[in-house]
Write a structure and sequence with these properties.
Oligomer: single chain
Number of helices: 14
CATH class of the largest domain: Alpha Beta
Mean pLDDT: 91
CATH architecture of the largest domain: 3-Layer(aba) Sandwich
Order of helices and strands: EHEEEHEHEHEHEHEHEHEHEHEHEHHH
Number of domains: 2
Strand order of the largest sheet: 3-4-2-1-5-6-7-8
CATH superfamily of the largest domain: Glycogen Phosphorylase B
Length: 385
């Protein structure tokens, strides 16, 4: 079966939850014999790179601006995909899903799948027109795709409640990694094992990094705070974060950390605690990754974070509440045995419930069911002629 993935920036993943999802899913499907193509953007994946671990890569241009990058690349990729003989075109994200109707109109035999990763229109970085377009992308994902996938139970409920559509739950996943020593992070940033609190994500307002810095500034602790990540058209926000941290030499900004790199592995492996103060999510891969390394996680009390950590596999603080965040940090800094015990339980939890073997199998079943529907429809047409 030939499958095309559209909407992601590219693979292998450098940053971005959708990119990590697409990389793991596409490689997993390729290993099972699927003919998989991933469309990439030249500013993210080298234009000369034509393949990755059995997955074909097609580089197409985009208008690399905040508002036009994703939709322009999706348009060019969709036009290219329609010209080819794919069995399934799989869109990732509600923004790219704005165009799912095009293959339905121009090549109706192709089955179209859309994965709903997050309610992007609520992100603070977008203006009113972008938010309207993202809402329209939600609607087209639900109304026109042959199958819509939700990556969390929370998003599944949202789609059912707002649009009256039963979507299929297929979560984000992680691969349980081996821990690394602190050699590289010691050299680069002076970090020791269990000597720091870690935040690792894109530096955009809804990730809530400012709450963490403000709370940390009120603590009396020798443990450092590591802010790992880069802005995404949010350089002004990064400047605000650095201004908040300017009087505290124990706050370290690492810049972008490529997923799967030695630096990424060492930062997760040696953190005392992982903190994720996000105001909204789909299903946070960074939280699942921290859990996969056996780390205690302190996350904001939004439904998506609570879904990831459950009742027994992490800790929460009241969303947007800096005082509560400070109090929970103080408590967890005083209780290392509890942090370690919960982290170990979290590792087993994600290994069981968020593993890529099961996720690839679920996606394979969706494609197979749609392919079988196509065969039935084709047979019916033959019988009527």
């Amino acid at each position: 079966m030939k499958v095309a993935f559209i909407g992601q920036k590219g693979i292998p993943m450098k940053f971005g939850g959708i990119e990590k999802h697409v990389e793991s899913l596409s490689v997993g499907l390729a290993k099972k014999g699927f003919d998989v193509t991933v469309y990439t953007r030249p500013w993210y994946t080298a234009k000369t790179k034509k393949g990755y671990k059995g997955v074909k890569l097609i580089s197409l241009k985009s208008f690399n601006t905040k508002h036009l990058d994703a939709i322009s690349h999706t348009l060019f990729a969709t036009i290219d995909a329609i010209r080819k003989d794919y069995d399934v075109i799989h869109y990732h994200g509600v923004g790219p899903s704005l165009l799912v109707w095009l293959p339905k109109l121009l090549k109706p035999r192709v089955k179209v799948v859309s994965t709903f990763h997050c309610i992007d229109r609520l992100h603070q970085k977008w203006n009113w027109f972008a938010r309207f377009s993202l809402w329209l992308g939600e609607w087209t994902s639900i109304k026109f795709a042959d199958e819509t996938i939700s990556i969390s139970r929370t998003l599944q409920f949202y789609c059912s409640n707002k649009y009256g559509k039963d979507t299929t739950y297929v979560p984000n996943g992680v691969t349980v990694e081996k821990s690394n020593s602190a050699k590289l992070i010691k050299q680069k940033f002076g970090l020791d094992k269990d000597g720091y609190i870690l935040f690792l994500s894109r530096l955009i307002p809804h990730k809530g990094t400012h709450y963490l810095i403000k709370s940390y500034n009120q603590l009396k602790t020798k443990k450092k705070l590591v802010i790992a990540g880069a802005p995404s058209y949010t350089e002004k926000y990064l400047a605000e974060l650095k201004d908040l941290a300017k009087d505290n030499p124990n706050i370290i900004f690492t810049g972008n950390v490529q997923g799967g790199s030695d630096l990424w592995r060492e930062l997760f492996s040696n953190a005392y605690l992982f903190v994720h103060p996000s105001e909204r999510e789909g299903l946070p891969i960074a939280v699942l990754e921290a859990m996969s390394f056996g780390k205690g996680v302190l996350a904001s009390s939004i439904p998506e974070n609570i879904e990831a950590i459950g009742e027994d596999y992490g800790f929460t603080f009241e969303n947007k509440n800096e005082i509560d965040l400070k109090g929970k940090l103080e408590f967890l800094l005083k209780n290392p045995a509890l942090v370690k015990r919960v982290g170990n339980k979290a590792k087993a939890h994600v290994q069981k419930n968020y593993n890529w073997t099961d996720i690839v199998k679920s996606t394979e079943n969706i494609y197979s069911n749609l392919h079988n529907e196509s065969n039935v429809e084709l047979l019916a047409k033959v019988k009527t002629t």
